[in-house]
Amino acid sequence: MKQLTKTTGGCLCGAVRYAIRGEVHLVYNCHCVDCRRASAAPYVSWVFCKQEVFEILQGTPSEIEHAGRVRTFCSNCGTPLTFKNPQYPDDIDVTACSLDDPALFPPKGHLWVEDKVSWIELNDGLPQFERFTTN
Ligand SMILES: [Zn+2]
Ligand SMILES: [Zn+2]
Question: Is residue 31 within 8 Å of residue 109, measured between CB atoms?
Fold first, then answer.
């Protein structure tokens, strides 16, 4: 999926604001243990895009490195904002639900379903992947 966009988002308290200006490549729900714990939610919807189309407009997110990957969040209110794997420095993942309008980017599937919480029932008809996929 490639979708042209110019959209904005930010954290709960408003300290951090960002823009995505360009193509969004993929949108997936991630059920992995790390996303779950980092968000304290059963799964996280991610917008995958290139670093060059993502821009912080206001504020300075805090970073936490875990398992060699870097997540950012608002240091004031804690909203999870981005994910980066240093193995793919040109890419950044943005939490879809920190967007001002998450409805713009409906997810295309579920990743890391092998880690899914048992009481989450997936019946949206979207493809499910045991782990990661870029299809
Ligand atoms: Zn905040
Ligand atoms: Zn994950």
Answer: no
Q: Are 33 and 115 in contact (CB under 8 A)?
A: yes
pTM above 0.90, yes or no: yes
- 7 CA from centroid of ligand 2 (Å): 23
Domain hosting residue 108, numbered range: 3-115
In a domain, 126, yes or no: no
For residue 69, tell me if it sits in a domain: yes
Ligand 1 center from residue 81 Cα (angstroms): 10
Report the separation in Å between the CA atom of 111 and the middle of ligand 1, taken as the mean of its atom positions.
27
Residues around ligand 1, an ion, CB closer than 5 A:
11, 13, 15, 74, 76-77
Enumerate the β-bridge partners of residue 44.
Answer: 30
Give 40-71 pLDDT, tens digit per residue.
999 999 999 999 999 999 999 999 999 999 99
Total domains in the fold of the chain: 1
pLDDT of residue 27: 95
- Whether 30 is in a domain gets the answer yes
